[in-house]
Automatic annotation (TrEMBL):
STAS domain segment(s): 548-693
Region (Disordered) location: 725-783
Compositional bias annotation for Polar residues: 760-783
Name recorded for this polypeptide: STAS domain-containing protein
Gene Ontology cellular component list: membrane
Keywords: Membrane, Transmembrane, Transmembrane helix
Transmembrane helix found in the keyword field: yes
Superkingdom to which the source organism belongs: Eukaryota
Gene3D superfamilies registered for this protein in UniProt: STAS domain
UniProt-listed InterPro entries: S04_transporter_CS, SLC26A/SulP_dom, SLC26A/SulP_fam, STAS_dom, STAS_dom_sf
Biased composition (Acidic residues): 725-744
TM spans (from-to): 54-78, 84-100, 189-211, 223-245, 270-287, 299-317, 349-369, 389-412, 418-441, 485-511
Species in which this protein is naturally found: Caenorhabditis briggsae
Length: 783
């Protein structure tokens, strides 16, 4: 009977409720609360414990600044911008994170892999915005340059004409190919600030749409292979400075091959003084960081800044020995000692760096969230990952008004600040103030710092990345797919450029997930006698399960990628179950006899014949499908459930479903599932489905079958003949006068087969049946 009144509320009531919610969410107090939620500093700063935290944050900030000076200059050289911008990058983002961040220990700054990705984007933009033209230059030669002292050659007008092309002056006219700086003058730092601006916008949008779950695509294996591959790129980007070789610019996918070839071709141009300084610096870092640092850490409460000591020694030696002038050792150069004025990013460059900005933004988020999770576990407090997306985005957008390049969290910076007492965000404040003082008052002393020392520091810093190769040893024995993801991420990052390699590594990881969903695992369930619950049972233990009710479960989504696998697994489950239940018993005496192999072969052949016969009969197994293993089901998955049910019913296999999830129940009722499947065959618990299937089995057995089974056992002329002997006797023909004896033999053979089937179902062995029959024959003869 149709309902006269609908259960749904009136439309005007629904609209009024929606309007009230919108009015409440747009109220001034709600808007102010939402705005203030983006500034966590308003919450924690009034509660700051000045007496216990101030001096710890001060010492942590100063120590972090000491470590940030050489690191910032080194990262600037990787990015391809002047060294002072590396110090600016260590100041502004870290200072702005105080207002938006929720982590007490995270510190924003440059990262080697991000700097290398930014350098690739800068090179691409510089090439795209530049045009070539022919320029004429004049070289003024001296008399010493033209006079050959070895041969005592006299310079004449004819000689000048041959060398310089004129007879009256020492000026040489040279025509060379030059490149413009683009439509309007563009510098490397302009590209970097535009990248961090666009990356910040992308990160804010990720926070608005709650897309932090996308970082789950950056699995630990993907990031490990990517970071190690990035370390290879960093190594080859800095090896030229360590050897004193000027290598040509390379950019684009596969540029590393050309970089290696350029390095091999220029090995003859190695600068010996530069190599000597580089190797000495690298050896100092190895000895100090690997051997002296553990000893100093036990003797002092503060970590020793060996990098800063190396910088001081390098500056002093270069200045006093005049290495840059006398031996052509390249130095950092002049560093401006003034505060940079804010300026807008170059928005006209966005069309050139869109894809690079997306890759850098996602990579920065993945590294930042990874460091935040490590900090959570180490210092035992919760970090709001959604707010961290906003913090990273706002910091990027606001920092782009100053000359900085892309940043993210660095675990080393975070640990250094906390190791010496830093416990709140004010650690970054004191670090920024200390770095600003370095720029304003000590920046002029940094111009004598050799570039090869910075390269040695950068290459040594990749040691931690290359140690991740040790993860492969633990992955290979158990997690072979994760092992393949790690290697593929590494090779794709090395063989292609950084951004393209990362995207392809993520695609490969997703592909392995799709392949694994197409080949899900399935198993049998059986009742646990101790707990009365149902547990997973291995396929080799099926003979221990009593009864003829098979319980099937597949732990995977039933969607378009796994529907075919589900259908095949169901039929494979039925086949394994019925084949296992068709096998007959073998006694201990038969197993210990000399003919045990022949007995096993005969039993196997008999089981196969019985299984084939059962395939044609109506008394097949009862199948219970536990649907709780499906996290979700799509349209094709639901259609597959219906088709499997129909096919099983047509084959004589009674099918039952167990559904406990409300979402799947709602899906069944909202579709035509119950038009195909009897609703009485859908249960909430596995135990209820098994009970219904067992009752169905007991109701199918008629009284005639039971009496026949008892009569076959008690009959005096019952002869239990082995299936192998029956096969041999069936091959003979009964003709002539032996027809009557053949009919009698056939009757006894049929009775014997039927009795053996009854005994196999009730788990009675052949030996026990034979002894039971003989005892009953003796009783009948006495009667």
């Amino acid at each position: 009977m149709p309902k006269l009144f609908s259960d749904r509320p009136p439309l005007n009531a629904v609209l009024q409720e929606k309007a009230q919610k919108i009015r409440y969410s747009c109220s001034p107090s709600k808007c102010l609360h939402s705005l203030l939620s983006f500034l966590p500093i308003i919450t924690w700063l009034p509660k700051y414990d000045w007496s216990h935290s101030f001096f710890g944050d001060l010492s942590g900030g100063l120590t972090m600044a000491v470590f940030s000076v050489p690191q910032g200059i080194a990262l600037a050289s990787i990015t391809g911008v002047p060294p002072v911008y590396g110090l600016y990058t260590a100041i502004f983002p870290s200072f702005l994170y105080i207002f938006f961040g929720t982590s007490k220990h995270n510190a924003l700054g440059g990262f080697a892999v991000l700097s290398l990705m930014t350098h690739g984007a800068i090179e691409k933009v510089m090439l795209r915005t530049a045009t070539s033209y022919n320029a004429t230059a004049y070289v003024n030669h001296t008399l010493d340059e033209l006079f050959d002292r070895d041969n005592d050659t006299i310079i004449t007008n004819t000689t000048l004409m041959q060398i310089l092309g004129n007879e009256t002056s020492f000026l040489e006219e040279v025509t060379m190919e030059m490149w413009t700086e683009g439509v309007t003058p563009v510098k490397q730092i302009h590209v970097a600030t535009t990248i961090i601006f666009l990356a910040g916008i992308i990160q804010v949008l990720m926070g608005v749409f709650r897309l932090q779950y996308l970082t789950s695509l950056f699995s630990e294996q993907v990031m490990s292979g990517f970071v190690v591959g990035g370390g290879v790129h960093v190594f080859f980007a800095q090896i030229g400075n360590m050897l004193g070789i000027e290598l040509p610019r390379r950019n684009g996918p596969g540029y590393l091959y050309y970089r290696i070839w350029d390095l091999i071709e220029n090995l003859d141009n190695v600068h010996i003084p530069t190599v000597s300084i580089s190797m000495s610096s690298f050896l100092f870092l190895v000895i100090s960081k690997e051997y002296l640092a553990p000893w100093f850490s036990s003797a002092f409460n503060y970590p020793v800044p060996f990098e800063l000591l190396l910088v001081v020694v390098g500056i002093t030696a270069t200045d006093y020995a005049e290495l840059s002038r006398r031996h052509d050792v390249k130095v950092v150069g002049n560093i401006p000692t003034e505060f940079p004025p804010p300026s807008l990013p170059r928005f006209d460059l966005i069309r050139h760096i869109g894809l690079n900005a997306v890759a850098i933004a996602i990579t920065a988020v993945a590294i930042h969230i990874t460091v935040a999770k490590v900090v959570e576990k180490r210092y035992k407090y919760k970090i709001n990952h959604g707010q961290e997306l906003y913090a990273l985005g706002f910091v990027g957008v606001l920092s782009s008004f100053f000359p900085v390049f892309p940043v993210t969290s660095g675990f080393a910076r975070s640990v250094v600040g906390a190791a010496v007492g830093g416990s709140t965000q004010l650690t970054c404040l004191f670090s920024s103030l200390a770095l600003l003082s370095v720029i304003l008052y000590i920046g002029t002393a940094l111009k004598y710092l050799p570039q090869c020392i910075l390269s040695a520091m950068i290459i040594f810093a990749q040691k931690g990345m290359f140690e991740k190769f040790g993860e492969l040893k633990s992955l290979w024995p158990v997690f072979k797919i994760d092992f393949a993801i790690w290697l593929m991420s590494f090779f794709l990052t090395v063989c292609y450029d950084m951004g393209e390699g990362l995207l392809m590594a993520i695609g490969f990881a997703v592909l392995t997930t799709i392949i694994r969903t197409q080949r899900p695992k399935w198993h049998f369930l059986s009742r646990d006698n101790e707990t009365e619950s149902f547990k997973e049972t291995k396929k080799r233990d099926l003979e221990r399960i009593q009864g003829n009710v098979c319980i099937f479960r597949m732990d995977a989504p039933l969607i378009f990628t796994s529907s075919d696998r589900f259908t095949m697994s169901v039929w494979q489950c039925v086949k394994k179950w019925e084949r296992c239940k068709s096998e007959s018993f073998v006694t201990i005496e038969q197993m210990n006899s000399d003919k045990s192999a022949d007995i096993f072969d005969s039993k196997l052949k008999a089981a196969r014949r019985r299984w084939k016969r059962d395939q044609k009969s109506e008394s097949r197994c009862k199948l219970v499908i536990d649907c709780d293993g499906f996290p979700y089901v799509d349209y094709l998955g639901l259609s597959t459930l219906k088709s499997v049910y129909v096919d099983l019913q047509a084959a004589g296999v009674q099918c039952y479903f167990v559904v406990q999830k409300s979402e799947l129940k709602r899906l069944f009722r909202a579709t035509d599932f119950y038009d195909v499947v009897d609703e009485a065959r859908v249960f909430n618990k596995v135990a209820d489905a098994v009970k219904a299937a067992e009752q169905n089995i007991s109701s199918l057995k008629s009284a005639k079958e039971v009496l026949t089974a008892l009569a076959s056992i008690a009959t005096t002329d019952t002869i239990l003949i082995d299936e192998e002997d029956i096969e041999n006797e069936e091959s003979s023909e009964i003709v002539g006068d032996e027809g009557r004896e053949g009919e009698e033999e056939a009757r006894r053979r049929a009775v014997s087969e039927h009795s053996e089937e009854i005994m196999s179902e009730t788990s009675v062995s052949i030996g026990e049946a034979r002894s039971t029959a003989s005892s009953r024959n003796s009783i009948n003869s006495e009667q």
